[in-house]
């Protein structure tokens, strides 16, 4: 299902949450009562339950609730369309084919991690990719991964979430979210794809149980829609500050990160670094103090060690 974010039916949806008669809605939005009825029918098909008398009123919503998600997406600068799927291979793959859009799926059959790894995407999780025409140089992409990490960590802050450099968000040292930023286009003017996976109500497969966590294990009443709405709010707030307030975003990253001050081993494309994570520099690179002195690493796999 595709929802255009400037579609007035989103405003109609807001009215239907409060309750309104077909006649009132038709008048307010300048449409026929048949179009109101068709929209009500579409909502019912999508899993919403509406009371019909004395007015139309939404009394129960599915989780995820696509129209609440679309309303939240309206806040993100530059977004025009929302593509909502029950199942796809990978939202990042699909996001590359569309512009100025968010692509969400209830489950992914081939969710992607970095360097060809798999992202387990059972139903009940949150899988979303943003395709944004930012036209920035490719070397800005690591910054957007950090920005997205701040958005996710703020969204899950009440569960004690912390960021692990560069693209993981952890709760009690277990991974609850991963971010995959990619680009499409030219090196000096890239379109950016920011893919975010969050374990919300999905089962964690056995082989990942000791290193991954789903929010439902901490909060039985967690909802995908609520997490999504908060994520959009945080992302939109951060995107409005990027790039002009990059340094303050980086400051927030440092405050939410569990990496700085830890002993780490970093695997960076075959090279291995070992030392104390000291800081993040202005480009988003991790500075670690090794035997050779301070070194800066732009991307890699980070492990915490105990010595
Ligand atoms: C990531 O890769 O963490 C990036 C994950 C991005 C997923 C989103 S979902 C929406 C969008 N569409 C996509 O196709 N992808 C994005 P990486 O740092 O390479 O971590 C991958 C590793 O995390 C795997 O090798 C597993 O060890 C672990 N892992 C896999 N699935 C997991 C899950 N659901 N929860 C926690 N850890 C997981």
TrEMBL record:
The keyword Disulfide bond does not apply. GO terms for cellular component: cytoplasm. Keywords: ATP-binding, Ligase, Nucleotide-binding. Coiled coil: none annotated. It comes from the Archaea. The keyword 4Fe-4S does not apply. PROSITE patterns: BPL_LPL_CATALYTIC. Residues 65-243 form the BPL/LPL catalytic domain. One of its GO terms (biological process) is regulation of DNA-templated transcription. GO terms for molecular function: ATP binding; biotin--[biotin carboxyl-carrier protein] ligase activity. This is Biotin-protein ligase. It comes from Geoglobus acetivorans.
């Amino acid at each position: 299902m595709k929802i255009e974010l400037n579609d007035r039916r989103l405003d109609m949806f807001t009215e239907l949450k409060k309750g309104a008669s077909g006649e009132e809605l038709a008048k307010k939005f300048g449409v026929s009562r048949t179009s109101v009825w068709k929209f009500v029918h579409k909502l019912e098909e999508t899993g919403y339950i509406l009371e019909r008398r004395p007015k139309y009123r939404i009394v129960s919503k599915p989780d995820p609730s696509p129209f609440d998600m679309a309303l939240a997406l309206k806040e993100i600068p530059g977004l025009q369309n929302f593509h909502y799927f029950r199942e796809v291979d990978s939202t990042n793959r699909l996001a590359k084919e569309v512009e100025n859009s968010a692509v969400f799926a209830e489950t992914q059959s081939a969710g992607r991690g970095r360097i060809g790894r798999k992202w387990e995407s059972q139903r009940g999780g949150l899988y979303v990719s943003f395709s944004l025409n930012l036209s920035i140089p490719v070397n800005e992409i690591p910054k957007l991964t950090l920005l997205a990490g701040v958005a996710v960590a703020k969204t899950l802050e009440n569960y004690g979430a912390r960021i692990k450099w560069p693209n993981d968000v952890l709760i009690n040292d277990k991974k609850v979210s991963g971010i995959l930023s990619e680009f499409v286009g030219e090196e000096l003017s890239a379109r950016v794809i920011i893919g975010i996976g969050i374990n919300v109500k999905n089962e964690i497969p056995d082989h990942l149980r000791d290193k991954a966590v789903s929010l439902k294990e901490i909060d039985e009443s967690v909802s995908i829609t609520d997490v999504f709405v908060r994520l959009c709010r945080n992302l939109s707030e951060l995107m409005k500050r990027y790039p002009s307030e990059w340094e303050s975003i980086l400051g927030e990253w440092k405050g939410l990160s569990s990496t700085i001050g830890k002993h780490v081993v970093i695997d960076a494309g075959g090279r291995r670094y070992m030392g104390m994570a000291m800081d993040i520099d202005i480009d988003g690179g991790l500075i670690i103090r090794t035997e050779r002195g301070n070194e800066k690493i732009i991307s890699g796999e980070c492990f915490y060690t105990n010595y």
